[in-house]
From TrEMBL:
This is 6-carboxy-5,6,7,8-tetrahydropterin synthase. It catalyses: 7,8-dihydroneopterin 3'-triphosphate + H2O = 6-carboxy-5,6,7,8-tetrahydropterin + triphosphate + acetaldehyde + 2 H(+). Belongs to the PTPS family. QueD subfamily. It comes from the Bacteria.
């Protein structure tokens, strides 16, 4: 029997969608107002879900407190109130689109979750726009 547990979190961050190898005009044509040279921000919502077998001793798939601590350490502390382009090393050469942010978060959390568990990350950039990543 496999069960999914989920934990919600949030962080506020600024970013700019921009490719250094493109002209300003091409960046503007593709990314529009999200290419603002002065950046813009979002109140991101995050849902992290872990699916696995229930441990017969504890009754847990994974202790939600453990998952909460992983999210705090891997996402909230390094991303909250940061400029993703300037302050977060993973985005120095990676465009911080919602898709790329979700993959980066998944990779950071994946390292901390045992390999026989499935992991899913849902990142809400706005109330209407969100990305889901489950790994490759």
């Amino acid at each position: 029997m496999r069960v999914t547990i989920s934990r919600k979190a949030h962080f506020n961050a600024a970013h700019r969608l921009h490719r250094k190898d493109w002209t300003f005009e091409k960046n503007n044509a593709v990314f529009g107002k999200c290419n603002n040279p002065n950046f813009h921000g979002h109140n991101y919502g995050l849902t992290v879900s872990v699916t696995g077998k229930i441990d017969p001793e504890t009754g847990f798939v994974l202790d939600v407190k453990v998952l909460a601590d992983i999210i705090l350490e891997e996402v909230e502390i390094p991303f909250d109130h940061k400029n993703l382009n300037l302050d977060v090393p993973e985005f120095q050469d990676l465009n911080p689109t919602a898709e790329n942010i979700a993959v980066v978060i998944w990779n950071k959390i994946r390292k901390r979750i045992q390999s026989d568990f499935d992991l899913e990350v849902v990142l809400n950039e706005t109330d209407r726009n969100f990305v889901t990543y489950k790994g490759e």
